[in-house]
Every structure is written in C-alpha cells, then in structure tokens.
Write the structure tokens for this entry.
Amino acid sequence: MDKLGQDARISVVMLTHNDHHGTRRCLESMLAVLPDAMFEELILLDNASTDETRELVLSLGSIDKVRVIRSDSNLGVARGRNRLFALARGAIVASLDSDVEIAGTGFFRDARALLVRDPRIGICGASGYRVHFSGGQLHLKPYTRDGSVDCVSGFCQVFPRQLLQQVQIDTAFSPFWCEDTDFCFQAKARGFRIHRLAPGPGLRHRYRSIDTRADDPRKARHEALLVRKWSGRIRLIGERPGPRLRRWLRRERQRLGRLGVRLGQHVRRMLRPRPL
C-alpha cells in the first residue's frame, strides 16, 4: 500500500438498526466532532429499522459532510459494511457501531498517526484480542494494552482505504458474528499487523448486542466456519507461548547450551591422544 499522508482524511461509516435512543446519542456525539478538518464524511446506512431510527437517520441527510443510504431490507452486518466501505472517499476508513459514543477527536488522531507512522499496520481498533484455536473451537483472550493483537472488535475498526483492494468482509458470515475477526485474519494473512489502540476517555462503547440469545445457532456455526477457514493458515499471537513459559524456555536453552559446552570439552579430553 502507498504510505498515508500526515493529513489523511477519515471517512466514518456506520450501520444503524433500531435502538433509536442509543443511536441518537451516538450520532449527536459524532456530529459534534464531524466539522473537524480531519473528517472527510460520515456515511450512514440504515438497515431497515422498524422504529424511529430510520426517520432520525434520514433527517441528517442535509447536514454538511453527512451521506445517508436507506436500505429497504436488512443487509446484515457483513453486506452492509461492504456497501459502506465501497462508498467511502477518505484515505482512512473508521467503521463504528451505532452504540459508540465519542468525546473529542483524540482517538481518531491517535489512530491516524499510528497508521501513518507504521504502514505494516493494516487495522487498528479500540478493543483487541489474542486468539488461539483448540479442540476445533475459537478462544479469544482480551488484550488491554496498546500493541499487536490477532483481531480488533468490529465496533471500532480503523484502516487505510487501500486495504480494501486486498480484503473485504466475507459474506459467508452473514448476517453477523465473526465477520470482524475474519476481516482481521484476512489482513494478517496478507502480511499486515493488527493493533489494539487504547481508546481513553474519547471513545466509549455501550455494547448493544445484535442478538442477546447466547444459544443463537448462527454464533456457533460462524465460529466453526472461522476455525475451519483459518486453523493452521495464519500465525496467531495467542498460540505463542506466554511470557512465563518463554522465560522458562530461555533458561532451559541457556542451561542446555552450558551443558553442551561441558560435554564437548569432556569428549575432546577423552579423545585426546595419550602418551604411551
């Protein structure tokens, strides 16, 4: 990918579906920072809301920098995000869920600076996980510091728009669940790093689950699909030894190295010709 400029502008894209009051809080917070020059636009796609959310979103179409798309059918997360990504014009895309609340531009400035500074980073986000596969199942461990992770949650993903020339949301994960993790794995498979960036007070996620039923069969089906698709195909940070095990392995290598030196010295003494 081409290197991003210091003043790269950000397209914020967002799906909305019902939850009128939460969506209103999210949009009010986003509209408060949208006039900043770092933002190219805010693109909203209403996913066939059946409450007042649709009217709220459509009413924003006349605001400067806001673009509104209306869908008469629910495209789901995977297809909806792909449609939004295709419309983005900024050099950087920030994909947000409609249950995020924003206070200031700090997180977006930090995300842009990170992507400009390190072109190896394909996607950054506010919530990161280190992943491993075990027993045919997906295991995610939250990572709470800034740094490399295996995936970042889809409620906030920021990436160069050029990345979309190589990866896109896999619609096999429609309508939702695991599509965000798969998106990150696609970027990792192409040599990019995924980075967790602490959001600080400037970005808060209220978390409104799309489907609160823990036994929703789509969740288990999509997790199994993700494991089949990626197990053994990419190197996961979560599958590496932990710091305690790495320290033990390092000590053992050093110990074995010293033992090898002593053994070599002993063998050389044994093989040394002795005077008759």
Observations:
- The helical segments are 20-33, 53-58, 76-87, 106-117, 179-189, 217-230, 243-271.
- The CA atoms of residues 241 and 249 lie 9 Å apart.
- The chain has a mean pLDDT of 88.
- The chain has two domains: 10-239, 245-271.
